[in-house]
Amino acid sequence: MKITFKPSGVCCKEMILEIDDNNIITNVDFIGGCPGNLIGIKHLAIGQEANDVADKLKGIPCGGKSTSCPDQLAKAIRETLQ
Description:
Elements: E1 2-5, E2 14-19, E3 25-31, H1 35-45, H2 50-57, H3 69-81
Antiparallel strand pairs: 1-2, 2-3
């Protein structure tokens, strides 16, 4: 399944997430945000079980913010798998 997620409270404006029928992340694209960090997250997430990725990324802050792009990706995964 392919979903588009609009994160809030972060620099990234949009996340496009693809998860297969076995809950494996097959692709993640970020629009906006810090390119190097988000490309790194993308490469680490692809091929991984979606719930495992969400568990690892949930609650990560960015600077003085209570959320981050990784935290918002965890939220997108959870909403997708509900």
